């Protein structure tokens, strides 16, 4: 399901409202040029994540799913020079492209990529007793969303935000499915709705990538 106007509106918003600069365009180009799939978030989504960072005064961001470092660059700019972004990526090739992109963007001093399966990296962060993150962005293999959400709850504090991307996926979420990605995302949404520590919602969206959506949760305590 798609409509050409969705991509036109997305471009209009990127140019008119967001003002995506050449740094971000360069990141997209280098990511695609390196043979990675062009599945990074849109400029409008990046600006929304950055706004949320500013609203909660985020200085520490955790991202699950780095790709070429596009969304991490939005976070790096939003947290400012004194902030940090930790991003988890299974593919060392993607991590290398991301690191090059952060150097070019001038934010490499505040972004760290941890290479390996995110479930393992998250357990290591929990075991290390790191300071809580102000915002966690979950955007990797969708089947593991419940595992990532549970870890995010251990790694945040009251007042933090947890964001999960791609929760609608052409409406598959409301159909019977044994696709592990759909099952994982549906379970994560059920967790968001039933956990008394969270106030959450999910928003469906349309864009150049079709019909999809994101969930956002505020950690109450
Ligand atoms: C949708 S892309 C991330 C896009 C990125 N957040 C952005 O908007 O710029 C998903 C990424 O998750 C990574 N990934 C998939 N499974 C993973 C896992 N088990 N652990 C860590 N990363 C994983 C993929 O290699 C891919 O780079």
What this model shows, in words?
A seven-stranded mixed beta sheet has the order 3-2-1-4-5-7-6, sandwiched between helices. The relative contact order is 0.14. The radius of gyration is 16 Å and the shape is globular. Helices cover 45% and strands 24% of the residues. The protein is of the alpha/beta class and 221 residues long. The chain starts with a helix and ends with a strand.
Attribute tags:
single chain; 221 residues; alpha/beta; Rossmann fold; 7-stranded mixed beta sheet; 8 helices; 45% helix; 24% strand; binds S-adenosylmethionine
Which superfamily, in CATH terms, is the homologous superfamily?
A: Vaccinia Virus protein VP39
The share of residues in helices is: 40-55%
The strand order across the widest sheet is 3-2-1-4-5-7-6
The counted number of beta strands is 7
How confident overall, as mean pLDDT?
97
What is the H/E string? HHHEHEHEHEHEHEE
SS-derived structural category: alpha/beta
The shape is globular
Short description:
About 45% of the residues lie in helices and about 25% in strands. With about 220 residues, it is of the alpha/beta class.
Topology readout:
Elements: H1 4-18, H2 22-33, H3 43-55, E1 60-64, H4 70-79, E2 84-89, H5 92-105, E3 111-115, H6 118-128, E4 133-138, H7 145-154, E5 156-165, H8 180-194, E6 198-207, E7 210-219
Parallel strand pairs: 1-2, 1-4, 2-3, 4-5
Antiparallel strand pairs: 5-7, 6-7
Helix pairs in contact: 2-5, 3-4, 6-7, 7-8
The protein binds S-adenosylmethionine.
